[in-house]
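As a next step, we paired sequence with structure tokens, yielding the entry below.
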Amino acid sequence: MLLGFLQYQRDSVLKIVEGLPEEAWQMPIVPSGWTVAGMLRHLGGVEHHWLQHVTTGVIEEEIEEEAGDEEEGTYDPEAAFTCDWSSADLIANYRDECRRSDEVLAVTPLSAAPRGLDFHPDPEYTKQIVNVRWIVLHVIEETAAHSGHLEIARELLDGKTRLGGR
């Protein structure tokens, strides 16, 4: 059931951005400056970080090279999410990250302890993480929150509403 909720949120994100004109992906429409492109890239990074690295404790060189250009330097939680990739590349990347995450979850019990808590930069935050179930819930929470942001962006960009989830 938990994995079903995760997939539902992922699908909602993709429904919201489907058909958005290419030029709108790079347009900041809120004062903080994030873009639809940046938000989808961030969501791919969420999958990558939490469900692949923190869950397994493994950083694969091939994956790390692909993800390495997401955020140059030190992560800044105050910086706006932006990305200059095309919509097709962003959607493909997000789907690929979700597929890789699903591969990890297919062989990892939700009750298992995460093996890569050291990969997260905030040890105070990771103290509360007791198992992979917690991580999946966090990814659902993050995906759902940003799905809502994307719905608002979509309405402001082209007037379309009710594209996402429930």
